[in-house]
Sequence to fold (567 residues):
Amino acid sequence: MAAVFPIGWHRYQPVVDILFAAGRDFPRGRISEIAGSRSSGRTGVLHALLAASTGQGECAALVDTKDSFDACSAAAVGVELSKLVWIRCGGNAEHALRAADLLIQAGGFGVVALDLAEVPPAALNRIPATAWFRFRRAVESTPTILTVIADQPLAKSCSAMTVKLPPRRVVFAGQAPFLLLRDAG
Amino acid sequence: MFACIHGADAARLADSFSPFVEMVDEKTAVFTVTSHQIRQAESLPLPAAVAATAEAAILAARNLPGYTFIPPGQEARVLGALTIDTLPPDPELFETFELWGIRSLEDLARLPENDLAARLGERGLFLQRLARGALERPLRPLIPAARYEESAELDHPIKLREPLLFLIARFLHDLTARLKSQSLAAASLHLTLNGNQRRHSLPFPTRDVKLLLKLVEHSLERQPPEEPVAKVHLELIPTEPRRIQHGLFTPAAPEPEKLELTLGKIRGLVGEKNVGYPELFDTHRPGFARQTKERSSLAFRYFRPPLEARITSERLWTRMFQGKILQIAGPWRSSGDWWQGCVGENAQWNRDEYDLALSDGALYRIYLDRAPDKWFVEGVYD
Fold:
């Protein structure tokens, strides 16, 4: 049974601190999921997790199905880009799953992140449930955190932890044109 | 004993005496000779000299006509008649020697060492030892870099991958054994099949035949030869081997050999250009900048390529989503690289950026590309 940890966004608390706190709790040798809609903060949690891992000197890998990774914002929260293997799959979910499988088999990564966000539901529905069982089996004897980022939870019972991020109400503050974004719960 | 030949054909003549030849300049070759070879040197058609030190032989060959043999211990006497300007040029010291009335090497050789060192220092002593023919140094032969290559021309061209790999494995075993004998490792592998070269730069120096063979196998899987292979040429570029000191508290990392093979497989799957490490550039170009504008600490996701959009004062439409505009911030104008033209990866940019909150609850970054005057959604803050 997957545990669900909703993360709330607090108005004046630095966002990155919250994300780092979330990053430290991901179990090793298990599948964890980060699920949420656009602008829910799922990418922020992923960046924080990668920053925590690479900050400890580990190597991390990101399987970027939709080629959406932004190195600037990742580096801004402390991801060491030189320790991050970035694999772009051009929208092909099957290639992404195969690449993630190969990376887990290679071993030695602190985090393997499989980013399936924004992938069309039709492509996600084609992923057989056995794929997640195979991932769970492959990762369980390793110190690797396998993280799946998606719009909705995908791994179901194979996932040891699911971070569900609720939609946020975005708030602009300041005076135009120098408006700043502030999160609200 | 050292021998020196001075003349236009010095290198070729020196090669007939020894494989280890130091070329002092284009016309001067120095090498070691045995007692039997000393007699052969007498018949050389170019000015030549044999002496107990390399520098004495060089001075004699350059400045004395014909063949000169300097018996050990007689260097100062034989070289003494040479003028001071036969030594390596040092204008400052030569001026001093001129003032002191020193004209020949014999004059310089006679000066007391301690007093000369006190007045002219290390450089003065160096010239005096040269003048006495007493400066000893080892030979610095020019050894051509060894090439680690194997090739074969086949009577019956190979059509299948397995026999080709079998042949390449044999090459690799031989070449890595040669590298090992020289305490070297391969930095890159160049495989030429029927004249088409494919280069594999290795991420670390290695002599592991299995790893090299796997890399070649992945390469052949990704890009099979277009026609049966009749000519195979394999070259390993040598370098110093990798030396690693492991630590107890070093975080676990992928084994380099395994990682390279894994990335090789993934490259075969998603393409060569889609596997690597992200890197930021020192530029203001959106999406590449090392330091972005201080606008938000939120993470960002790109839509690659950007989504073309249609926008009014109230709504936004794209092929993926649409919604009512709730709030909008901007514009942030940016432009650059105008000298790069309008086409290509590094083409100029000129745009107005906005942050846009839509009714679907997401916050997007949109921009107006001012060159074609079109709206695009670049990505979403996430």
Observations:
- Chain B is about 30% helix and 30% strand.
- The longest strand of chain B covers residues 322-336.
